[in-house]
Amino acid sequence: MPNIASILKAEISRVARKEVRAEIDILKKASAHHRASIAALRRQVSALEKELRRAAKGSTRRVPVDDADGADESGPKRRFSATRLASHRGKLGLSAASYGKLVGVSGQTIYHWEQGKARPRAAQLQRLAAARDLSKQEVAERLGAE
What we know:
Elements: H1 2-60, H2 67-73, H3 82-92, H4 96-103, H5 107-115, H6 122-132, H7 136-145
Helix pairs in contact: 4-5
C-alpha cells in the first residue's frame, strides 16, 4: 500500500506543478505586457513634460525677431560632429582662426569644438550650417571682405 500512496502522491504533485506552471506563464506574459505599457507611458509623460517646458520657456521669453531669424529657429534640428567640422575646415584649407572669423567665433573656440572639449550653441550651429553651404570661392570672398 505505501507504494501506491507514494505513486499517487507523486502523480498529484506532478499534475499540480504542471497546472501551476501554466498559470504562472500566463501571469508572466501579463506582467511583461504591463511593464512594457508602463515604460511607454513613462516615455510619453517625459516627452510631454519636455514639450510643456519648451512651450513655457517660449511663452515667457517671446521676443519679436525678423523673418530670417525666425526661419532658423523653426528649421531642422542641427547635429554637431567634431570630425566633420575639422574635415570641412581642412577641405576649405582654412586655419582655425580664419574659420572662426567666418563663423563668428574665435579660433580657440573652433579648436575646442574640433577636440570635443566644447560644443556649439544652437545659434552657432546655424552659422556652422550656413558656412557648410558656402563654396571655397565664397569663403575667400567673405574673408577678404572682413
